Amino acid sequence: MLQDLRFALRLARKNPGMTLTTFLVLALAIGGTTAIFSIVDAVLFRPLPFNESNRVVRIFATDAFSNQDEVSMPDYLDWKKNVKGFSSMALFGTSQATLTGGALPERVVLGRAEASLFPLLGVAPLRGRNFEPEDNLPGHTAKALLSWNFWQSHFNGEDILGHKLVLDGKPYIVTGVLPKSVAVLGRKDVWVPLVFDLKVADNKRGFHFFNAVGRLAPHVTIGQVNAELAERSSTLAEEFPDQNKGVGARVAELQSTLSGEGLGSSQGDFRNALLMLFGAVGTLLLIACGNVATLNLVSASSRQHELAVRISVGAARTQLFRQVLIEGVLLSVSAATTGGGLAWAIIRVFKTLPVTAIPRMEDISVNGRALVFTLVVGTVTGAVAALIPAIRAAGADLNFTLKQGSGRTTDTRSQQYLRRVFVALETGLAALLLVQSGLLLKSFVRAVEINPALRTDHLLTLYFSLPTFNASHLDNASIPALVRQILERVQAIPGVRSAATTSTLPLTGTDAGGGIVVEGGPQKRHLWEAPYAVWTTVSPRYFQTMQIRLLEGEEFAADSPGKKVAIVNRALTDKLFPKQDPLGKRIAGATQNPDWHQIVGVVADVPQEALEKKPAPEVFFPSEAADTPWMALALRVSGDPQSYIGPVRRAIAEVNGSVAVFLPRTMQEILGRQFLWRGLQTWVIGAFALLAIALAGMGTYAVIAHSVNQRIREIGLRMALGASNATVLRMVIWQGTMPAVFGALLGLAGSLVVGRLTANILFGVTPLDPSIYLGAAGLLSAAALVATYFPARRASLLDPGSALRHE
């Protein structure tokens, strides 16, 4: 074995070009595969860091609009009492709070948890203790658990047990610090007890604001629990028809819900996108393996005489098989080591990208599983790439090879056929990648071309907190006055042309709303049957600031807040008032006591969640402040929007020093984030496709160049008998491009099947787009032509006399 290793190293030094080419091809392919594997493994396959995490499920409410709705507190309490399929259950929610006591007020993301949540997950605090059940009852001492990241960023990991945090003016006692593993539930800076007070409006039946999780009881399956929930939902629908008619419930494994599997989530189905990336890089690895096998076949063919001599002096064929196999495995293991380092670098770069929506981002790393994967992939790739040449070497015809002489061995038909098969397979797989890359690129272009229906230049947005009604000296009437003062102060900043507030910024993924009814329209037996619309609160000058086009009527006037008026978008008028004039009509939220608002204007549709998602019907109500703990502020400015962040912060602080300002972004930045994930996916698969074309072209070139070298005498004889340079050129090009053309046709046919599987991540393009297939065929044909042209041209320029004397 040591002798074989030494010989392999000497052979590598003797052929540095061949060795370096093979090494780089394998290192790039293995590095890319390992990097994507690390991402896919962390997001999709790596178990959650909880005890028996496969038995932890997420509980969803379902209705006619969604199968992944949040749950209401009364429904949850009923399930907890009557559904026996869970060994434990827990409820938690997310909100925001203003942290004071530091240099500046700060917005923190608040997790509100039932005391059973962390024991259900099998998570214990790193420091201190968990919540007690009585902490979830009204009137108990307010306690807080810090997330690991918040503990490190705000307290540098110091002992803070017993420390007081002031959140929305209310003191909380820190009783513990949670481990990093809790981050899979989403970003939460501070956790506080969820108070089960059914007198609070948000906690009443019909208000779906909470997340519910459960741990399956022993020997209970998801199907059995779903059957129990369905039965209980039917009972609740009969007992509470106004709130629960048509409302069901289902469970799904918590890990699958984090990647959006089967949820149709507005955040994107990461599972399909990641699996597509993994399939693409796996295809590239197969192409690299085929490419290396082709190069090895060419190399083994040139070594036929050497191998035959070794057999003739006593070498066993099994020794030759082992020798050639070791050469391939040695090179691939070296490439795998380099590929592991490359994967680490790729992951480092990937984690710096602002693709914040990817779940479990903090878990992505080249860990032990990834390193084992790299080693296995590298070894198997090298073994597979070297296996066929090794078999050919062990089965060489000794007499035939020795009779040919050392200078001109001739390949058998089976050897020539095998190399052409590899070229065809490489080209076919490259065609598969190229078509998918083309579809994603065209889809990306179509998405970028979407008109957001507002002007994004010179537009700054940010959020600011509002004092809560029960934690501030301000009453309900004073909060709109506070917002009005903030608007007046901000509008006075030099360079601010217009400013307005809104409860929801466009393209931010929020779509709070409810049913809408029309005065005098058809009566619904149940309020949940009313058409859905997004409800947005805006101040006067909002549409002027955002430059959203007014189609009919008028914008809100300065005295509109407090009046019963509304502006709607085109999607709502098309749904509720087809072929009618909506101006003057009255609409209201679908409640028991409708609050009627007269429509005074119609505006263009602006996407609420994503550019690629059709805008929902939307109703705009006039008010400076909404019944939320924060508001969004939009400013149309004269210069660079980023330069106004500091002056705006100072202006708001002058009005009220307890108001926190957070998430300052330009509208162009918000718009750009719409394309981050799609753009990244397009770029990665596009890079894979280009590399695949290069590898396929390299394989074609190697085969044709080797073929020309072996056929020098034959070509010289043809030219001596009258064949012209052009005839030889056409002959070699034709023979060289045929395997590539055949492989490309097979790859295009396979793309018809694969394209249907990836149709759900495309936008504005069908998976059978003929222009993509024609473009891929043309590009592959051009690549094959370039790869064959140079060996063919060298053959056409041969001197017949020299060629006939060639040995």
User: Mean of the pLDDT scores?
Assistant: 83
Rounded to the nearest angstrom, the distance between the terminal CA atoms is: 35 Å
Helicity level, as a percent range?
Answer: 40-55%
Spatial order of strands in the largest sheet: 2-3-8-5-7-6
Radius of gyration, in Å, reads 34 Å
Q: What would you call the structural class?
A: alpha+beta
Which descriptor suits the 3D outline? Answer: elongated
Number of strands: 21
Structure annotation, total helices: 24
What's the story with the biggest beta sheet? 6 strands, mixed, barrel
Quick structural gist:
The chain has 807 residues and is α+β, with helices and mostly antiparallel strands. The protein is built from 24 helices and 21 strands.
Characteristic terms for this protein:
alpha+beta, 49% helix, six-stranded mixed barrel, 807 residues, 24 helices
Detailed description of the structure:
The chain is α+β, with helices and mostly antiparallel strands. Strands 2-3-8-5-7-6 form a 6-stranded mixed β-barrel. It has a 6-stranded mixed beta barrel with strand order 13-14-19-16-18-17. A hairpin with a 5-residue loop joins strand 2 (86-100) and strand 3 (106-113). Helix 9 packs parallel to helix 20 and helix 20 runs antiparallel to helix 22 (725-757). The longest helix is centred in the middle third of the chain and has 36 residues, at 317-352. It starts with a helix and ends with a helix. Residues 261-268 and 469-475 have low confidence and may be disordered.
